[in-house]
Amino acid sequence: MDKCNLIIDEKKFSFDVVGKFNWGKDEFLYNSETNILSKTNFIENGYSIINLFSDLEFKDLIENTKKNILDSALSNGLNIPKDFHLENYHHYIKNFKDHNKIISKTKVLRKKNFNFDLDKIASIISKIVGIELSFYNPDLKTSHIQLRINRPQSSDFNPPHKDSYIDCFNDVVNIWIPICGCDSSSSLPLMPGSHLLNESELFKSQPGEAKINNITYNVPCILKTKNRFFKLIRPNPNIGDAILFSPYLIHGAAFNNNSDITRIALELRLSRK
């Protein structure tokens, strides 16, 4: 068993990880000339906060989020009141077994699961990056949309990783949209500029090999970095905003330190059209 030690906004965090770790190869995975973000003015940081929704659109997004959670609960024989507040999700789903049943559905959502103009989001992001994008992923042959549900004081988070280690996500752009419970103590941590690191600076597992609390993760876990502190920050987007970031950027370890609020975010990935 190894321990992942990191600093998020100058605060120390750690968790135990089981897996086989090795230093990466001497190579750069990110190509600044051909990447989707190569024409943006935030290419060096690898991320930006953008505004996506009006107040009315955001209310619709909340209702869509509730519907998807309720649909998952119903299909798994779990009882959540129809009028529940998203922030109180953990009051009804109290153990990991039931939580895992919920996310088995909410982590593989498609466009059809949303009564919402997702193509408008693709249009906005396309203008920002200067490339026409779509929710359709040619490798998956479908769209890929995921609700990230993180109960307070839990381990409902991925380890630090790069999405680009999974082949079908190495030519996409990520959009992380806070729905509820997202603030300076629960927002998604990122490591600015980490998409430009040589892989030899990263001590990491292979996909599907890292375990946290007996849970195996598809993404590799980056345990530590060479010759520098493993430091991340929590960009804290406002309601209606989103974090747009590169799949080559190190992110994860999204501890939810809120005392009694579930954090829910919508994660989208757009590919070249």
Uncertain spans: none
Distance between the termini: 43 Å
> What would the average pLDDT be, to the nearest integer?
92
* Sheet of most strands: 6 strands, antiparallel
Order of helices and strands: EEEEHHHHEEEEEEEEEEEE
> How many distinct beta strands?
16
| Helix count, DSSP H or I runs of 4 or more residues | 4
Q: Calculate Rg over CA atoms.
A: 18 Å
Category from helices, strands and their pairing:
alpha+beta
Strand content: 25-35%
What do you see in this structure?
The protein has 273 residues and is α+β, with helices and mostly antiparallel strands. The strands form five sheets. Strands 4, 5, 8, 9, 15 and 16 form a six-stranded antiparallel sheet that branches. A three-stranded mixed sheet has the order 2-1-14, with no helix packed on it. The chain is globular and about 50 Å long. It contains four helices and 16 strands. The protein has helices at residues 55-75, 89-92, 96-106, 118-129, and strands at residues 2-8, 11-17, 22-23, 47-51, 133-134, 136-137, 142-143, 145-150, 172-180, 202-204, 211-212, 215-216, 222-225, 231-232, 241-245, 263-272. Strand 1 (2-8) and strand 2 form a beta hairpin.
